[in-house]
């Protein structure tokens, strides 16, 4: 028995030994076959169907014998791309790791001129089809060869992004110059750094978010594209280029550019058909001047945005008050009817004028302004609570029992005086300001980032848009005939309006209570089965960065109890069963920033993103480390489209 066991063990050992010998022979044969080609790879590399990597040998540079020129050849399947050194709004650049190599002091990966790609509104920079990245190897000892494994880490994307890793065995490089022409073809496309004298900056004109750069074009550059990067690595949209003799100008929207960074730098990469250039401009602040010429487009956006405010969920009480006025006006004479509507419009415009003055004064003192921030003020909330209660009690006919007649005459709709109508217009506007409706965010962002002319013009035009329904009724009085004739229904209608106003009062009271609450209860507004982190910026500025390092995908939600549009986004989109499942599937963590109470850091964060109000939502992932801002009003389709970027 013992001998049988020993024989069995002997045969097992013999079999394993035989297998290892055969395997080593196979590996040696494979290695011999690989030495016949001009690129290096290793047997432990993963095979990718959508991309192929080759390492091409170029030459030893003549001026510095310790330097070698290699080429990283990347062949991509149709629809796939690899990124430039600055990917843009999403993606990661390819990098080289020399830890496993010998006799290499440094390995510099050079980047030829990239292409712009747009996917779901996200703009990135990179390469498709085929690209060769030149590599400058600096050897430690020039008389010795390099060896070991040069590791490549990159991200290759189509509709999804795939991280790739590849190791090149430097000892298998074939020392020939057969690939030099291929490498030099792409080496010539690497942008050349310009000095201070070349393409000297003449001026920078700022109009709201629009920057116009003017440079002395002594090199006669004819750029097809200019890539504009700031000191934080943000890249902006493709500029519009103008060339007039030896002057080169380009106009670009830099809405997320922080004006305080003007004393730092902007990097420009000029893409041409021949030689590409790059230039760092460090004296921006010295060359800047501002202009206040407003474009027709932004005025139209402001007007339409103001008009849309009439139909936002948070303006439902406002609409009810307007309806009540229309019913009462129907019984009045034509002149009084027009005068009362005119006073309503005046109240609205006066309030927008007050907002413009306040905004300018706050900006003049160097502070940051936000839309809807008055709802963070206790005294303002108390005033609005009292006002909505007064209106509601008046409509229920119990107002007269405890309110002095003088105050009653000011607030009642029944008075023939016009001060109450002006007060109603003011009330309508203040109640509408927590909303950031479509186009409102764009107009407000342009106004708050501009000078005095922009602030006053845009806010007053928005006021006219908000007044548009009343203006139409004043111009076309016959429109009032669509409302039924006065009757018993008005008693019921008044009670319904009073009930809506009471709901508004209770909502404002809840906001006031929450403003006094020291406990952070933000997570209660989300479904229990969602992963939610309540972010306190005062304790940790780098939470999102830390989550990305843990391979988490992040959905940032800046919200507040007084922002009804924020709550609508949660109820109808974020907390819906379909989106909850998608968030789970994509490992999404919701990071909630509660702006119910004043918080300077949140205000500065929004300002850095070119936003001055909420709702504010943004997706982050390792492929979108700088975030992608979503529209103010969310929908399931919008969420699905953005999730495709991180799947």
Q: Would you kindly provide a written description of the structure presented here, covering whatever features stand out?
A:
It is elongated and about 100 Å long. The strands form 5 sheets. Strands 3, 4, 5, 7, 8, 10 and 11 form a 7-stranded antiparallel β-sheet that branches. A 5-stranded mixed β-sheet has the order 16-17-14-13-20, with no helix packed on it. Strands 21-23-22-24-25 form a 5-stranded mixed β-sheet, with helices on both faces. The protein is 37% helix and 25% strand. It is of the alpha+beta class.
Question: In a few lines, what is going on in this structure?
Answer:
With 647 residues, the chain is of the alpha+beta class. The chain is 37% helix and 25% strand.
Give the arrangement of secondary structure elements:
Layout: H1 2-34, E1 51-60, E2 67-76, E3 81-88, E4 95-97, E5 101-102, E6 104-109, E7 115-119, E8 122-128, E9 130-139, E10 147-157, E11 161-169, H2 180-187, E12 192-193, E13 200-207, E14 210-216, E15 225-230, E16 240-244, E17 247-253, E18 266-271, E19 277-281, E20 288-290, H3 296-308, H4 316-329, H5 334-364, H6 378-395, H7 405-411, H8 419-432, H9 440-448, H10 452-466, H11 468-475, H12 489-516, E21 532-534, H13 543-549, E22 553-559, H14 564-574, H15 577-585, E23 588-594, H16 600-608, E24 616-621, E25 624-629, H17 636-643
Parallel strand pairs: 12-19, 13-20, 21-23, 22-23
Antiparallel strand pairs: 1-2, 2-9, 3-8, 3-10, 4-10, 5-10, 6-9, 7-8, 10-11, 13-14, 14-17, 15-18, 16-17, 18-19, 22-24, 24-25
